[in-house]
């Protein structure tokens, strides 16, 4: 989306739970309201637990939400939370590429993610192949794998 | 071993971005304390059913090749990749629900029909046992058609997760399902915004005058 498109559809003040629609639009097609620029966001751990970074898009079934996740507060849980923010900001920026604040937030989260991953790898082993540059031996294949019941949470 | 670098000129930082790579974490934790094959019987549908994560990932990752606009190539790649992560999560749920089952557990849960064909393996099939089929996804090669399909697909997946939440009585399972369901809502929003952006580029008096995924190239 070019910046002009973003400007024409996002300047109205609809609040966090509503988005902007064009005043006039072609007939016979679907229109979803555009989420406004610089929307409010959850903290990283809460975002992962609730499944979205954005309170405005948090629309739970029967209004029942997760209050925690099994790795909350563990090194792995913190790494997952940062990876999740990166994914959410990526999808948001794909359709809001002109939002400079969101881009800055993506850059700072990517930096935190990189630092967090390095610390995690020192404690529990590689997450990506390139992490092996910091490992003593070929620990890529070491258990547990992510689908195993016992994960590398740091809780043992 | 003496291996010379093949890709001369590639800096260290570039290596991770060369192709699809595996990250050895799930997107969201799956930690199910109590095996329960009765739940696995219907949750398998989000692994290999008509509105499941395998179909979702292939729908988006296949549609992107014909897309003419950069934001559509990006969004379909990024959501398609996330869906592969969801496929892994649903596989993990089924695996953990069916670990260390006894023959008695299998019979009691009615898991015997699945068990006789796949033991405790994770096989892409629907809740009714039909193996995964590409007929559950659409790749029409038309910008408006494919994005409209994607919006409907996200709604179908959301409804399936709603129904799983109605049936599941295990908090360890519902915790994961609530996360996956919310992702469908976010993806619906992004596909809608992407369609919006695509429509802005078309003839405002007749958005159906041509298909920009085919006709623009022929000009």
Describe the protein.
- The complex is a heterodimer of chains A (156) and B (219).
- Chain A is mainly α and 156 residues long.
- Chain A has four helices and no strands.
- Chain A has helices spanning 3-10, 44-50, 75-95, 100-124.
- The longest helix of chain A has 25 residues, at 100-124.
- Chain B is mainly α and 219 residues long.
- In chain B, helix 1 (37-43) packs antiparallel against helix 4 (70-97) and helix 3 (53-63) runs antiparallel to helix 4 (70-97).
- The chains are: A mainly alpha (156), B mainly alpha (219).
- At the A-B interface, helix 2 and helix 3 of A face helix 4, helix 7 and helix 8 of B.
Total number of strands of chain B: 0
Strand content of chain B: under 5%
Alpha-beta classification of chain B: mainly alpha
Oligomer: heterodimer
Query: How large a portion of the residues of chain A is in β-strands, by DSSP E?
Result: under 5%
Helix count from the secondary structure assignment of chain A? 4
The poorly predicted ranges of chain A are 1-10
Main sheet attributes: strand count, strand direction, barrel closure of chain B: none
- Which spans of chain B have pLDDT < 50 for at least 5 consecutive residues? none
